[in-house]
Design a protein that fits this description.
The two termini are 35 Å apart. This protein has a single domain, classed as MetI-like (MetI-like fold, Orthogonal Bundle), CATH 1.10.3720. Helix 3 packs across helix 14 and helix 4 crosses helix 8. With 280 residues, it is mainly α.
Length: 280
Amino acid sequence: MGSLLKRNKKIKIYILTIVMLLIGILMVIPFVFMLSGSFKPQALITSEPLKLIPSSIYLANYKLAFSFDNLFFKWYFNSILVVTVTIILRLLVVTMAAYAFARMEVPFKNIIFVTVFAMWMIPSDTTLMARYFVIRRIGLYGSHWAVILNFTFDVFTLFLLRQFFMQVPKDLTEAAVIDGCSHFKIYSKIMLPLCKPAMVTVALFTYIWTWNSFSEPYIFIDKIQNQMLTVGLQYFGGIGGLDIGMIFAGACAGTLPTIILFCIFQKYFVQGIASSGIKG
């Protein structure tokens, strides 16, 4: 009986592995086609789309993308700037809010948390116009701060860090209180050093979401030289017709930092997700 259960468990694991492998391949295929097309002339992209390895490497797409009105590297720098500042501010704001919800005793704390959590169910696109009027009213329209402030607070990362903080034994923080530590000291000296995997996870999520954002920079930034890379890529088709190869090249160059960062911090990312979901 025991051997039969083990065999069934192994079969389930094999089936799950195959399914996940197929899903992974389906998700990678578009990137492979994009990478292959970035090294082909435009004529071959449309005439030989299934030929993934081109007979010769064609680098003109990358040269055109990098030299496009001297804007590509400006967009790249703008994206890096916005992402970096957003990560710093989000980690500061969300970790403090998560600590307050996890450890501080304040009136109506659970009601406030449920209300904030309910905001997660509201699609962000439905609030774009309201945010647009607020941004214009406070005088930030057209600046990078308009995008940064929109991404500073996030309910999902708040929930993730709150779950992580709640796993820290209360005996540890109670002992610190007995020793005379304030909430800020407990937060900065005990909680933050213990939640490095969760903070790396939040930083990676923030990087991916902010780097790939399109609606916010498109709506809140009006000058092309101040745009982020995602919005800037659409201008590749604005002069001389649509150049698919140049768009592919720009998109591949924009994807490279994400792949590198995920490969470097993959261990912390998985650890942060796994440990944050142990208990509620």
